[in-house]
Design a protein that fits this description.
Elements lengths: L6 E4 L1 H17 L3 H18 L6 E3 L4 E5 L5 E8 L2 E9 L5 H4 L6
Parallel strand pairs: 1-5
Antiparallel strand pairs: 2-3, 3-4, 4-5
Helix pairs in contact: 1-2
């Protein structure tokens, strides 16, 4: 029997990242925002199923990254207490200091 997936917690900053990008894509083409949301949801679900599949970018705390399909976005997450905590979802062109300054302390 495969291990149960981790619970998913999406922090406020990540929710804002996702919403801003979805609105941007929707304004470019009707329906594209929904496709973006679906791609992000799928990426986060993959992280919850097996977070160890994804590269570790930092050790303490252990930060990992999952890429979205079709869209150039990266979701950054940590594991804590049986949960995958998504703390930022950023475009691939954004500088790493964006996610590094947002690592959850609590």
């Amino acid at each position: 029997m495969p291990p149960a997936p981790y619970r998913v917690i999406v922090r406020r900053e990540a929710e804002a990242d996702i919403t801003d990008a979805a609105v941007w894509y929707h304004n470019r083409q009707s329906g594209l925002g929904d496709e973006f949301l679906s791609a992000v949801e799928s990426a986060i679900a993959s992280a919850a199923e097996n977070p160890f599949r994804f590269p570790c970018l930092r050790r303490r705390p252990e930060v990992r990254r999952v890429l979205t399909d079709r869209f150039p976005y990266r979701a950054f997450f940590i594991r804590r207490d049986g949960a995958v905590i998504v703390f930022r979802v950023l475009h691939g062109a954004r500088h790493d200091r964006e996610w590094k300054s947002s690592i959850p302390k609590d």
